[in-house]
Design brief:
The chain has 2 domains: 16-187, no CATH class; 195-450, no CATH class. Helices cover 50% and strands 9% of the residues. It has helices at residues 16-29, 44-61, 69-84, 93-98, 139-146, 193-211, 217-224, 226-243, 262-284, 291-311, 322-336, 351-372, 377-389, 413-418, 429-443, 450-456; strands spanning 110-117, 127-135, 154-162, 172-173, 189-192, 340-343, 346-349. The strands form 2 sheets. The chain has a 5-stranded mixed sheet. The chain is globular, with a radius of gyration of 23 Å.
Length: 459
């Protein structure tokens, strides 16, 4: 439950105790191996010194975080236990259970977070990482969450400073990334809305220039206002995140610990984004809704479309890039339904008709999910492939594109997954050309934050 905690004195990235903690964590990273342990006994003396520095820094910083007192005490104990046990595989379950940021969603409230963890789109090793963050919780978001869009696990945050694992594209802080002896019930998930907003602004500015896209006035405002963009992404993420467990689902859309074709993940992530889009259209049209919610609802629609078609589609490798495919699908769907045009080397969007077309794609995915519980798994997979391949052209070398008769339907589902090409749906000629022009811009967003974007200006 959200409490009325007041934010205490702020800690900045230049605070000496924080910089000492950050340096100690970074030094420990250099001694750790992938599972988080420090196997070389010759490194244990140095590691112990770094842990001493880290513990002293946490102790000094703790008064600035009274709301995290139980966690900061527990994490110090976990570090002592790790050191005293000889720096084996770390186990920070006790401190992870003590950290409950979802209980205090107060705008501007700071947290000091330090765990051995991997970082999505960053380090795959469970190294000691430290982040100094603050919560983003505008009043209108509190109203949405308290109403129809309840999401007790959702914590939108902003970077203040971080260690190397977050000097990457990683924009989430998830408890499942922490090194623990057993998997607990997860009670929160944090998303760096400032990073999402900052890279969106940089990518959209470049893409609009390259494609000669004239942005609507309110969409253009996102380029010049980091706070407005952050709040927009918080609203998008709030609705997206809760959607993963809502709707007529194919039992478990993520099929946890099961191998399945990557294009099914494409549809699930896109479904959640298009649900956020649809709900934002509804909120915008609701005369009784909070004025700030209505304003941001309009901006969410722009953000979903532009982030999907400009950044998602061409970011990352072409190896089972499910977010990339979702962006390709949205672009092609809008183009083939005549609300997006690439004519005379200029991109235009018919905004008066675009919302209905985008909502229609979401409805197609919802219908696929609704039908799924009456279908065998392989039939659901084939129907999902058909939905995508009707709009996005498959790789000419694809076995899946040849239809069911070419697939090993008499074996286990793994055989079907193995037949999916790494790049089952290659980039179109439009995207091949756009990717070459946009590559330096997208690469430049690694490690970006709202603060760095503000310092660097509106790029």
């Amino acid at each position: 439950m959200t409490t009325a905690t007041s934010a205490p004195a702020r800690i900045t990235a230049t605070n000496p105790e924080w910089t000492a903690l950050k340096a100690a964590a970074s030094a420990l990273q250099a001694l750790q191996v992938q599972d988080g342990s420090i196997p070389e006994e010759t490194n244990h003396a140095a590691a112990s010194t770094h842990v001493d520095t880290l513990l002293a820094s946490v102790e000094s910083l703790a008064p600035a975080f009274p709301h995290d007192a139980a966690y900061l005490e527990a994490v110090q104990e976990d570090f002592r236990r790790w050191r005293d046990a000889g720096f084996g595989v770390p186990d920070f379950l006790n401190s992870l259970l003590a950290f409950q940021p979802q209980e205090q969603r107060v705008d501007g409230l700071q947290h000091l977070v330090i765990f051995p963890m991997y970082t999505q789109n960053g380090s795959t090793s469970r190294l000691v990482e430290a982040v100094l963050i603050e919560v983003i919780w505008p009043e209108f978001i509190g109203g949405l969450e308290a109403g129809e869009y309840s999401n007790k696990l959702f914590v939108p945050i902003r970077f203040l400073d971080f260690t190397a694992g977050y000097d990457t594209n990683s924009a989430v802080l998830f408890p499942e990334s922490v090194a623990v002896r057993e998997t607990p019930t997860f009670t929160w998930g944090a998303i760096f809305a400032d990073r999402e907003a900052a890279r969106f602004r940089r990518v959209l500015r470049a893409a609009a220039d390259i494609t000669s896209l004239e942005l609507p006035v309110d969409a253009a405002e996102l380029l010049d206002n980091q706070q407005l963009a952050e709040e927009t992404f918080v609203m998008w993420d709030l609705i997206h995140d809760r959607t993963h467990m809502r709707g007529d689902l194919p039992f478990d859309p993520f099929m946890i610990k099961q191998r399945m074709p990557y294009f099914l993940y494409s549809l699930e992530e896109l479904r959640c984004d298009l649900t956020a889009f649809r709900e934002s259209v509804r909120i915008e049209k609701d005369d009784d809704a909070d004025p700030q919610a209505r304003k941001h609802a309009r901006l969410v629609q722009y953000a979903v479309i532009f982030d999907r078609i400009f950044r998602f589609a061409i970011t990352g490798s072409r190896v089972r890039n499910y977010d990339g495919l979702g962006g390709q699908l949205l672009f092609a769907w809008m183009h083939q339904h005549h609300v997006l045009h690439w004519t005379d080397t200029r991109l235009t969007i018919d905004w008066d008709e675009a919302a209905d077309v985008v909502i229609a794609l979401g409805a197609r995915i919802d219908e696929l999910y609704w039908r799924s519980i009456d279908r065998p798994k392989t039939a659901h997979w084939l129907a999902a492939y058909e939905l995508i391949s009707e709009t996005v052209t498959a790789n000419p070398a694809s076995v899946w594109a040849k239809g069911p008769d070419a697939l090993p339907l008499d074996g286990p589902p793994r055989g079907l997954t193995d037949q999916v090409l790494d790049d089952e749906f290659p980039l179109s000629m439009f995207y091949e050309a756009l990717e070459k022009k946009m590559r330096p811009v997208i690469e430049s967003t690694a490690g970006i934050t709202g603060l760095s974007q503000a310092v660097g200006g509106p790029q």
